[in-house]
Specification:
Layout lengths: L3 H8 L2 E2 L4 E3 L7 E2 L3 H10 L5 H8 L4 H5 L17 E5 L7 H5 L4 E6 L2 H14 L4 E5 L12 E7 L11 E2 H6 L10 H15 E12 L25 H12 L10 H10 L3 E9 L7 E4 L13 E2 L2 E2 L1 H16 L8 E7 L1
Parallel strand pairs: 2-6, 3-8, 4-5, 4-7, 5-6, 7-9
Antiparallel strand pairs: 1-2, 9-14, 10-11, 10-14, 12-13
Helix pairs in contact: 2-3, 2-6
Length: 342
């Protein structure tokens, strides 16, 4: 590791394995899988590769982990290969692994121990040796100043205000009362400011998140974080009422418009905030366009699925054609990717 500041930082913590360090008070849980499912998945790694284990335990999320599309947004960073990077909320390494192949060193951070064990197994399978992991809660971490050239916050910012464990399928579908404190935006602001202070003078942040005003939300598509309808597009106090009625808890996973995202980053100390529109979403991006510019290659949602025309896809195709192909109304694009300089 060339970055001596990062090396000294990690040496302060207990080393749990070859690559995993534990931040004081580490722990917590956020995963698409239940705790039992994640435990079983880790056990499978004793006799199976990571891909085999996922296909045995949860084949429907294989693309979430292994799809090459997951890391397409990294191209916006124009990496030189000499950078020290941090991937916050790294989970199963969907960004960490391809990022490690393009930079000098990566520190992946996640609160879920099982996810880090899975990612560590992936490193060994691919012979990657320039990655370390830190097991800790993202809200609690304090990094040494001017340490990282690149910071990745991919599908993470909206979850930072949630202070209790999350088993996603239970969080999404069920009425579950949860503890909460503080204003979600203030918590997200503090998180982003902490990252900013950890960046070098020429450091950059790549942030990916859903657009609050994704056009589909106006048609009753469920909030991707709570499973409720219209909560992203209505005022926050109304979203709280909806969430209390249908989920018995405060509405916490805040997302923003293009303007709102840029404003939050500017307030947190970032300069030269460049926005990109992303289709069909930031997870599996097929079209990425600098906000406001025209993407001549953009193609709306195909009307066919499995060889059949569906009404839902037909409506989406026509709406997207009008919004983005005819009028270029990117205000309603599904996802936002941001490259922001310190």
């Amino acid at each position: 590791m060339k970055n001596q500041k990062l090396s000294k930082f990690l040496q302060k913590f207990e080393k749990k394995s070859d690559t995993i360090y534990a931040y004081p008070g580490s722990g917590g849980y956020w995963s698409n899988l239940s705790k039992d499912e994640n435990s079983d998945l880790v056990k499978l790694l004793k006799k199976h590769t990571t891909r085999e284990a996922i296909l045995i335990k949860k084949p429907m999320i294989a693309d979430v982990i292994f799809s090459e599309k997951r890391s397409v947004g990294l191209e916006l960073l124009r990496l030189s290969g000499s950078e020290t990077a941090i991937d916050l909320g790294c989970m199963w390494g969907a960004i960490t692994i391809p990022l490690a192949k393009q930079v000098d060193y990566v520190l992946g951070v996640d609160q879920t121990t099982e996810s880090l064990k899975f990612s560590e197994a992936r490193l060994k399978e691919e012979g990657i040796k320039n990655v370390s992991f830190l097991n800790g809660n993202l809200r609690d971490l304090v990094f040494p100043k001017k340490t990282f050239d690149i910071a990745i916050v991919n599908g993470v910012l909206e979850w930072v205000p949630e202070i209790e464990d999350i088993e996603l399928k239970n969080y999404w579908y069920k009425k579950i009362s949860r503890k909460s404190y503080g204003n979600p935006r203030k918590i997200q602001f503090d998180f982003l400011k902490n990252i900013n202070e950890g960046l070098t003078d020429d450091g950059r942040l790549m942030l990916a998140i859903e657009n609050r005003y994704d056009y589909k939300m106006f048609f009753g598509t469920r909030d991707p974080h709570t499973g409720t309808m219209f909560t992203t597009i209505v005022p926050r106090w109304v979203a709280n009422i909806i969430s209390q009625i249908f989920r018995k808890r405060e509405y916490r996973p805040w997302i923003y418009s293009f303007y709102g995202t840029k404003k939050l980053l500017k307030e947190a100390g970032y300069s030269n905030v460049t926005l990109y529109s992303c289709w069909p979403d930031y997870r599996y991006p097929e079209f990425i366009t600098k906000y406001g510019e025209v993407n001549e290659h953009f193609s709306p949602t195909p009307i066919r699925a499995d060889g059949k025309i569906t009404i839902k896809r037909l409506i989406a195709n026509r709406v997207e054609w009008i919004l983005f192909k005819v009028f270029n109304f990117q205000f309603f694009a599904p996802s936002i990717i941001v490259i922001a300089k310190k």
